[in-house]
Specification:
The complex is a heterodimer of chains A (about 240) and B (about 300).
Chain A lengths: L1 E14 L2 E7 L11 E4 L8 E8 L3 E7 L3 H7 L4 E8 L10 E6 L4 H12 L4 E7 L8 H7 L2 E6 L6 E2 L2 H7 L6 E5 L2 H10 L2 E5 L15 E4 L4 E3 L6 E3 L3 E2 L1
Parallel strand pairs in A: 7-8, 7-11, 8-9, 9-10, 11-12
Antiparallel strand pairs in A: 1-2, 1-6, 2-5, 3-4, 3-6, 4-5, 12-15, 13-14, 13-16
Chain B lengths: L5 E3 L2 E3 L3 E3 L8 H4 L9 E7 L12 E4 L2 E4 L8 H12 L5 E6 L4 H11 L5 E7 L10 H4 L2 H14 L4 E4 L7 H10 L4 E4 L3 E3 L2 E2 L4 E2 L6 E4 L4 H12 L6 E4 L5 H10 L3 E4 L2 H4 L3 H15 L5 H4 L8
Parallel strand pairs in B: 3-16, 4-7, 7-8, 8-9, 9-10, 10-15, 15-16
Antiparallel strand pairs in B: 1-2, 5-6, 6-14, 11-14, 12-13
Classes of the chains: A alpha/beta (about 240), B alpha/beta (about 300).
Chain lengths: ~240, ~300
Amino acid sequence: MIQEKAIILSNTEMVKDIWKMEIKTKLARQARPGQFIEILVPPFFLRRPISIHEIKEDSLVIIYKVLGEGTLKMTKMKESIDIFGPMGNGFPMEDQDIVLVGGGVGVPPLYETAKQYLKNGHKVQVVLGFNTKDQIFLEEELQALGCEVFIATMDGSYGTKGTAIDAIEAQEIQNPFVLACGPLPMLKALQTRYTKGYLSLEARMACGIGACMGCVVKDKEGHSLRVCKDGPVFSMQEVAL
Amino acid sequence: MMDLSVKLPGLNLKNPIIPASGCFGFGKEYAELYDLSILGGIAIKSATPQERFGNPTPRIAETPGGMLNAIGLQNKGVDSIIEKELPFLAQYDTEIIANVAGATEEDYVEVIRKLNDQPVVKAYELNISCPNVKHGGIGLGTKPDLAAHVTKLAKEAAAKPVYVKLSPNVTDIVEIAKAVEEAGADGLVLINTLMGMRIDLKSGKPLLANKTGGLSGPAIKPVAIRMVYQVAQAVNIPIIGVGGITCAEDVLEFLNAGASAVEVGAQNFVDPFVCPKIIQDLPSVLQRYGYTSPKEAVGRSFRDE
């Protein structure tokens, strides 16, 4: 883990309220798909945990949604940014084809994961859920990587009407090995359908490195796990959601 | 090179900087970032007799200049801490302060008895000020007679010096400090967090699952300084100051207020390297204000000059 005052290479809006920032940083050499970094957004006190969207040779790309004052402030950042990481375990690289399932701001970390599975010669199907057509992002980028991409929208304005789970059913996606990141109801639904694969969780964090016990979840035996350090990626049936 | 060492009951601190309990776990995570031996000491996460899962989540909420937490003394229990955490800490040349918590007076005594024969633990920090548990904690720390009684029992059980960590959530902290001193405390740690709340405007409900939480961070520093200043003039035992420290200047402010050493809490989350940075900066900051040691600065705010 490195703390660094890193250089912002770009910071632009992709679709309404979804922003993409590329940061030139030494952390890029250590990062793995599914890990996150912690960002300082002065004058706010706590760092913001943000998942890594793409790992380049000497830069990292993050995608964030403007949800509050902190993320709004991030859209104004232009020159440098204090980052700490990479943190968490990330998605394991297993020797097999995968289905990536994402919803909303859970989609970005799936991109680098897709990239690496494709590089290892595996087939990658991607199922993404959004509320409406105008909120869709990364569809084309994932297709450009070589993924087969399926979209669901809650209002039916694009792709399958309903959730990502509805799209899995409508498209008759059979591969039982799923890697997912997204809203809690989506992760819960996946847990009832799948036994294999991994889920990436989101949590309010303080330290981000496993010391403060702010972001714990329970495993199915009732033992506590830290989302920031033991996760954010857990095997499909490990955590009681 | 300035000598930063500070000698307190049971503690030979090479410098007055101690990560605060609950903000540093048992050191393992921070040991991946820097050598823990540079620290004056470490106040390790609270130990209770049995494992505690703690409160439901969310446990964390940001506030202007700080944060609320409602962890609820999550820990694996004193036996597990002795078996799994203390051996790791033994490899470092730093003074370990065991934070002791419980739901009843007997809990405090039980934890202390078990830690007495652990040589790595140099002193106890009696946590009678946690705002996030229903029993014990703050319940014992807000009434002078109860605080004094648990201190007395702890002292009787303890084979090492006992520091009592006081709550700021009281009308008169001086009264409690004096009661605890009289009961035999070897030192005081002040302050613990201030009880607070945030409400989520979308739901209209408290943001923390526990509803209330403990406020820490720079926002509470003036409260801590004021309390250290008042208590330091009223007692004859040393004070470890804690509350909102982010830099070496803050440390000097606590020393001037009457603290002999300090604990650094929430800032570890913001800047994981804050303790090494403060240790590095402290000599030049002390020098800039005309001191040749931390001790010289202690209590200057109320000393006749």
